[in-house]
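Researcher: I'm preparing a figure for a lab meeting and need a structural model of a single chain. I don't have an experimental structure, so a prediction will have to do for now. The sequence is pasted below. Please return the structure as C-alpha cells so I can convert it later.
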Amino acid sequence: MTMWLSVDPMADKYPSISPYAYCAWNPVKLVDPDGRELVIMDGSTRYYYKNGHVYINAKCTGLTFDSRLGKEASIIKNNLDKMSKSGAGKKVINRLINSSECYTISVDAKTGDGYYSTANNKVYLVSGKKNNMEALSHELFHAYQDDNGRSQRSIYNEVEAYVFCKMMSGLSTGIYSDNNNEYTLYGEEIVQKFDEKKFEYLVNHFKIDSKANSTGKYNDYKLNPGRYKYSSSLLNKL
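Model: Understood. Here is the structure written out cell by cell.
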C-alpha cells in the first residue's frame, strides 16, 4: 500500500484519513505528485506556477523560461508575481498553491470581465486588455473563498473580492460610488485596515451605491446566505 514518508501538509483538511495516506489509499485511480499546484493554461499547454517560477510538470522540476510563455500566459504570470510581493497577495496565492485542490487560470472566457467556476476550480479571464490585474485578483479571490469553504454566490463574497482587487490593482468599481461619498471613503479605508462595521456597511449598501452594480448586475444576489459574521471576513485574516 503506497504512503507518504512524512505527514501530508494538507492532512488537517481530511481528519478521517491517515496523514501518511497517499491519494486516500487509492493510488490506482488517483494521482497526486505533491498535492499542491496552481496552473496557468497557455492554449492547451499547462504551466505550473510556484514561488515566482513556471514549470512544465506538476513536480515543479522542469523549470522553463518566461520568454517561452505565450502573451496571455505571460501577463498572468507577471500579475501573480506582483501579487506575491504583497503580504495579502502572497497569502492568497500560497493558499491556492498549497491546497489539495488544483486551481487553474486560463484566458478563454468569451464575454464579460471573466469569472471563477466552482465546478472545476478554474479562473476564466478574457484576452487582451481585460486580462489584467484587476480581473485576475478579483476572480482569484473567489477561488480563495472557495478553498476556505465560502463559495456561495453573495454580496458578502463580492465585496470581499472587490476590496482585495483594490489592494492588488489600485482599482475597484465595487468599492467606489458615484453618489455616496461615505461608501467610497469606507471602501478606501478598509483597504488599509479591516473594520467590521465598515465592511458590513459596504455589504448592505453595495446594491444601491456600488458603481459595480450600476446596471443591476448583482440585484439577484443575496447579501449573506452563509450567515457569516462580518468580523470573520477573510479580509480580516490577510
